[in-house]
Sequence to fold (184 residues):
Amino acid sequence: MRHRKKDNHLGRTVNHRRALLSNLAVALIRHKRIRTTLAKAKALRRYVEPLVTRSKNDTQHSRRIVFSYLRHKEAVTELFREIGPKVAERPGGYTRIIRLENRTGDNAPMAFIEFVDYNTLYTKESKTTGRKRTRRSSKKGSTKTGTASNADQVVPSPPEETGTTPSTTVENLEEGPSDKSEKE
Fold:
């Protein structure tokens, strides 16, 4: 029976597992999203979330504790300067695991693990930034009001006023070049 054995050992010794999780955590902090196996992603989530919680309180003691887990100075700095303030109001759940297809070589289940606040696909801001789009009818020349479209109402300006050649209208394009424009 597996009573009180909740950690996944990942088929490694204690020191190898600690080094693996430390390296995965550094890669996650630096890149904000990594691709790994599902078992490693689940183990990494339990490893990195307490470190992110610790980074909310930027003290020397917290930095030393996080550094004892990561052993990477730049990752600790990035965690406390960028990630900690960004997730300050979040009560937990800093990472998200997205399952992917199985790996082709050994059929291992793969997954993305990423920080929730750094993916713009799932945030509300990215959905509202775009322009509202409406459906248009597939019939040519028809609109909701039943009037002619703006392209049909283009009136060429006289060449004397603007100093340029007259713009072509839809009627001129359908009829072909006119003799008047060739004489002018």
Notes: The beta strands are 33-37, 95-102, 109-115. The helical segments are 14-31, 38-55, 60-70, 73-86, 124-128, 159-162, 170-175, 179-183. The mean pLDDT is 82.
